[in-house]
Amino acid sequence: METLLSPVILFFVLGFLAAFARSDLSIPEAISKGISLYLMAAIGLKGGILVAESGFSQGLVSAALAGILLSIIIPFMAFFVLKSFGRLDVTNAAAVAAHYGSVSVVTYVTGVEILTGNGLPPEGYMVAVLALMETPAIIVGLYLASSYSGKQQNSAVGSRGELLRETLLNGSVVLLTGSFIIGMIIGKDGFASIAPVFESAFRGILCLFLLDMGLIAARRLQQARSLTPRLVFLAILFPIINGFIGVLIGTLVGLDVGSTTALAILAASASYIAVPAAMRLALPKADSGLYLAMSLAITFPFNVLFGINIYTQLASWMIGT
Amino acid sequence: METLLSPVILFFVLGFLAAFARSDLSIPEAISKGISLYLMAAIGLKGGILVAESGFSQGLVSAALAGILLSIIIPFMAFFVLKSFGRLDVTNAAAVAAHYGSVSVVTYVTGVEILTGNGLPPEGYMVAVLALMETPAIIVGLYLASSYSGKQQNSAVGSRGELLRETLLNGSVVLLTGSFIIGMIIGKDGFASIAPVFESAFRGILCLFLLDMGLIAARRLQQARSLTPRLVFLAILFPIINGFIGVLIGTLVGLDVGSTTALAILAASASYIAVPAAMRLALPKADSGLYLAMSLAITFPFNVLFGINIYTQLASWMIGT
Amino acid sequence: METLLSPVILFFVLGFLAAFARSDLSIPEAISKGISLYLMAAIGLKGGILVAESGFSQGLVSAALAGILLSIIIPFMAFFVLKSFGRLDVTNAAAVAAHYGSVSVVTYVTGVEILTGNGLPPEGYMVAVLALMETPAIIVGLYLASSYSGKQQNSAVGSRGELLRETLLNGSVVLLTGSFIIGMIIGKDGFASIAPVFESAFRGILCLFLLDMGLIAARRLQQARSLTPRLVFLAILFPIINGFIGVLIGTLVGLDVGSTTALAILAASASYIAVPAAMRLALPKADSGLYLAMSLAITFPFNVLFGINIYTQLASWMIGT
Amino acid sequence: MNKTSTACRIEVLVDLPLLRRIKEISTEVGNPGYTVLPTLEGAGHSGIWFDERVSGGAGSRVIFLTITSDEKADQFVTALEPLLESHGLIVTRSTVDVIRSERFQ
Amino acid sequence: MNKTSTACRIEVLVDLPLLRRIKEISTEVGNPGYTVLPTLEGAGHSGIWFDERVSGGAGSRVIFLTITSDEKADQFVTALEPLLESHGLIVTRSTVDVIRSERFQ
Amino acid sequence: MNKTSTACRIEVLVDLPLLRRIKEISTEVGNPGYTVLPTLEGAGHSGIWFDERVSGGAGSRVIFLTITSDEKADQFVTALEPLLESHGLIVTRSTVDVIRSERFQ
Ligand SMILES: Nc1ncnc2c1ncn2[C@@H]1O[C@H](COP(=O)(O)O)[C@@H](O)[C@H]1O
Ligand SMILES: Nc1ncnc2c1ncn2[C@@H]1O[C@H](COP(=O)(O)O)[C@@H](O)[C@H]1O
Ligand SMILES: Nc1ncnc2c1ncn2[C@@H]1O[C@H](COP(=O)(O)O)[C@@H](O)[C@H]1O
Ligand code: NA
Ligand code: NA
Ligand code: NA
After folding, report:
1. Which of A5, A26, A196 shows the shortest C-beta gap to B185?
2. Which has the higher per-residue pLDDT, C256 or E46?
3. Which amino acid residue places its CA nearest to atom 15 of ligand 2?
4. Is some CB atom of chain C closer than 8 A to the CB atom of B33?
5. Which of B6, B10, B201 minimises the CB distance to C197?
6. Which residue minimizes the CA distance to atom 5 of ligand 1?
7. Which end of chain E offers a freer environment for a tag, N or C, measured as fewer CB atoms within 10 Å?
8. Closest alpha carbon to B176 in B134, B236, B117
């Protein structure tokens, strides 16, 4: 409850309500994009610095494997549910499934803010796990689309290898990983002089970004014509199930409560950056209004408003602090 | 005098001179808009936090009523002066009058900075008064235009109700009010973690914004072809008179010196956000170059450079500190 | 070596590598431009404040004369080398030469950060020298182009006087000079309230800007079709020679180590703001891909990664601390 | 090869606050497809304007671009008429070749 | 006076992630000249989109504009065909007068 | 119904630092109306450019768009000629239908 009254969440709600009331409030796209790059650089740096301090531990390897595993199995499960219960065709089911296998940086960032506020900061290396989880689901999604539809989908836009390269070099992946490495190199001392920007300002800027996310989420929701009640239901069910699996696996591989919750948040979140861009290229017949609506307009708000708290409770209860 | 040498004012002067000398210095529009949203969020938050601390007082109600009253009577007075002495036709007189009835957020913000610097911070609830004063003048302006010109003006663009809804949900009104409410909810404690952005950075960012305002004001002035000496005179007379009335009413309803000055600043300032947008829609025959020049290029600089000081002196003298 | 591991430099390297790997990472142009304006305002303010504290000294006059001298002789020397060894035609040689005679604000800013980190902060008035050195080389470049090609080059776009006016009123020159003057007026006390933005945030924002510079430099390099090995060689040789001359002259006129190094950095750096814009107008036949590649994609990285350190060592050795 | 045929390309230069109305009008005449393009500045009988954004889009203009059939173009332009005069819209119309013209009926 | 002659003006409305491919295709048919224009928002059979940038350009579109000879235009459009259907590109073509037409061969 | 008639639509792709001159030339031939459109990137004989803004607009281009009468179009293009060759402007011209053509004389 208290979490819901944090400024970050309140700004999200403000944006959502404003767009719903059809206010013309809007943040220039250049600013949104700039803030989103800032958030990635900041979260990458912070993760790197934490790792520089505590050193790579065994936990990193387990968490990384757990993350990759999750980003492969989640799209498989999601695909079949979307096709059967969700009544989507193969292409759309595969495209949506890929989104749920990948991750949302801002959900993660918001989660870390809340966890840190509750005295449960996740390990720094979870940022590396975040970066690792961005891409695999895209490959799984494309595999699903081509095996089940029986045709090669993206011949016109270049080979699959090229698409893979583009996805791995997606700006957000590169910036996150690069900043993580920079954080490891500079360590806490090197960070001091840039901390006013990348640390002190972080929460305030996150507020502005979530205001924008609220606006965008509500607008996407209003314009989502192909969103059936079944799909809305799935867009809430998926994060719960995936978050639950995340908590389970995190506990099994021996992560602490904060990191387990972080893994659950990654599992539960759905991409809205790297994956949509890849899907527009590789599965152009998939309905972009649909996957963006599910990921941005339903799953994202759900996670931010409720999911993060649920996974935290679950993890605390499972691991027992 | 000292006020004129504050960095905020000096950056305004720099922008003004640069544009006057026809330098190509310019701030990208996305940045201007981003900063303007930031300023509204920050001022809203700060007001809300102050109210959360001191509680809603009787002062709020009086100030709110005083503000709404001002924003109704000012356009009436301005309209007749603009029509007779200013020699404007009905439509232009009504459009310009609406600007003077409404308020300028940045003038207010600059005023608060100066007042706070002088140890006279206005009450937090004045932000709510600011939000309340944005809209009524638009309605009065439209009323004046249609009663005196004898024809329905905006039939082509939808009903008056729709226009009213759009104005009330104008981005700046929504953000200001929303942030004010968020400020009241989070209070001083919740604000701490976002204070580096919304408080410490405020003055520096305001400098950059006023640099831009200086550029824009000078460019508007250079391009204002329909600006007669009489109208220039009125664009300086209006803030003085309205500021004076503001001080009077503020004193009458029992506000303190800071808040009285704030009310005077609101009365004296002219809108350049919500009102121009509404006028383009509802009174398209009015000359946008004219009302923006009067409001942005003359009244705004006048208030920032001289008005704020004048109203402060007047209020101090009337209320006597 | 240590310098190479500062976050500012590492972000530059990250950008460079990302663009080289053809990642789609990119910073919105509005943000780049906004940050670049911010950096100029900040560096101008800081210089002005330093001068306000220490007063104008004799050093300023010597440094200013030294700077102007450098910005006149460098393009002459560069022109003949570019024409003979570099095998460029008159127009291109003149255009490139003008770039090397002028200065790069960001190289200077990065240099000051490194110098300050090493306990060798240059005098505040070096910012004024920076502003003075932006323009003269343009005039020399145009003079060279018209005397050696034997024809009037820019008749179609207005007189030379007009071009000069435009260059002197170039946004970056105006903002730098204006902020410098504001800094002198407000002094340390007036600066306190805006320091969180213009001082504490400086390094962090510089990181983001250098990330962008890395991206742009690498992209320019990839697209530079007319860049011959000889020109690449010159784009590295010029900063070394010019930096060396800068150290010499700085030592001769009696500057301290920090200021001497700063003068060397100014001499060694090549413009990529004021000069390219002027050249597009006045020498349109010159290849903009070429001069931007030399200045932005080779000389800039060279200076940031190696040059600044070399000039510091040289100055320390010559002046002997 | 794809069937090429002709269609009507309409561009409307419109004040940002009025864009919503233009979209509604276009949709009402059964022409839901459009693309909006940005502009930077301009000049005309009513003087110079430039997009500074601080005045809430009052001074900003965008181009509403639609490709449609001749009939729908006529209907659209007719429906725009009241706004044309009052709000000083600039409307141009030209014929273009389109591929897969069935999309623009 | 400069020689004026006619050329073919092609506009392709394309998803940002696909732009690179369009450039390649244009270059492959021997038509290396182009200019890219921004757009703000739009609507069509697949609903409304707007450029919010946070979703990595997935929702953004740009206009690829090229002026070329009739032959090259034909070749370009033919080479685009596989993408036309699959990726829902919008292609319009018109004739314009150009000055110094030798630049657009 | 509004009177429709034809006018001449001219587009000039121009380097940002040169825009001021183009406006002056247009005004000098008695054609004060124009709209400026942004561009993002492009390629031509002189290589690829993209709008990164840090190099002060040297690498940026915009489109100067004007709708005018045939005569004024001729005059404008003639007045542009010296710049055409020297500054590598790209000028296209086409005929469009306009409503309220009296505005574009
Ligand atoms: N008739 C049209 N006129 C202009 N733009 C269109 C039209 N139809 C579609 N578009 C643009 O093309 C995009 C994709 O169209 P569609 O594939 O029909 O959804 C739309 O979002 C618009 O930006
Ligand atoms: N064929 C073309 N079609 C569209 N734009 C072009 C074409 N050729 C050149 N341009 C544009 O004009 C700029 C300068 O062309 P150029 O002088 O040939 O390098 C290019 O960078 C493009 O933006
Ligand atoms: N002849 C023209 N060519 C292109 N754009 C024009 C022309 N005339 C007017 N405009 C645009 O339309 C806006 C309004 O025109 P006006 O109502 O004449 O002031 C101008 O600011 C320009 O952006
Ligand atoms: Na996930
Ligand atoms: Na007022
Ligand atoms: Na130099």
Report:
1. A5
2. C256
3. F44
4. no
5. B201
6. D34
7. N
8. B134
Q: Quick check: C289 and C250 in contact, CB under 8 A?
A: no
Q: Give CA–CA dist B74/B71, Å, rounded.
A: 6
Residues of chain F predicted below pLDDT 50: 1
Residue type, B137: A
| Nearest-Cα residue of chain E relative to residue D16 | E40
Which atom of ligand 1 is found nearest the CA of E41?
Answer: 23
Residue of C317, C200, C245 whose CA lies nearest to C101:
C245
Residue closest to A156 by CA, chosen among C74, E85, C44, B100 = E85
CA–CA distances in Å: residue C149 to residues B250, F20, F87: 72, 27, 17
Residue E42's pLDDT is 92
C88 neighbors C113 (Cβ within 8 angstroms): no
Q: Is E25 in CB contact (< 8 Å) with chain A?
A: no
C-alpha to C-alpha distance for A31 and D53, rounded to whole angstroms: 13
For residue D41, report the distance from its CA to the centre of ligand 2, in Å.
22
Tens digits of per-residue pLDDT, B25-43?
Answer: 999 888 999 999 999 999 9
User: Strand locations in chain F, DSSP E?
Assistant: 4-15, 34-38, 41-44, 47-50, 61-68, 90-99
Query: Average model confidence (pLDDT) for chain B?
Result: 91
DSSP B186-251: HHHHHHHTTHIIIIITHHHHHHHHHHHHHHHHHHHHHH-SS--HHHHHHHHHHHHHHHHHHHHHHH
Can you state the angle between helices C202-223 and C105-117, rounded to 10 degrees? Answer: 130
pLDDT in tens, C44-101: 999 999 999 887 778 889 999 999 999 999 999 999 999 999 999 999 999 999 999 9
Count of all residues that appear for chain C in the document: 321
| Ligand 6 center from residue A40 Cα (angstroms) | 35
Residue F83 corresponds to which tokens in the numbers above? 């710049």
Q: Which residues of E touch A92 (CB under 8 A)?
A: none
In the complex, which subunits touch F with 3 or more CB pairs below 8 angstroms? C, D, E
Structure tokens at E69: 């000879």
Residue B2 pLDDT > 50: yes
Determine the angle formed by the axes of helices C160-168 and C274-282, rounding to 10 degrees: 160
Closest atom of ligand 2 to CA, residue F90: 12
Q: What is the maximal distance between C-alpha atoms in chain F?
A: 49
Pocket test for ligand 3, best of D12, D13, D37, D87 (most atoms within 8 A of CB): D13
**8 Å CB contact of A279 and E83:** no
Alpha carbon A140 to its chain centroid, in Å, reads 17
Beta-bridge partner residues of C192? none
**Residue numbers in A near C207 (CB within 8 A):** 41, 194, 197
Q: Assign D1 a pLDDT band (cuts: 50, 70, 90).
A: very low
At B88, the amino acid letter reads: L
Shortest distance between the Cα of E15 and any Cα of chain D, in A, equals 13
Q: Which two tokens stand for residue B165?
A: 């809804």
Tokens of B92: 């232009």
Q: Which of E3, E37, E39 to mutate to test the interface with F (most CBs of F within 10 A)?
A: E37
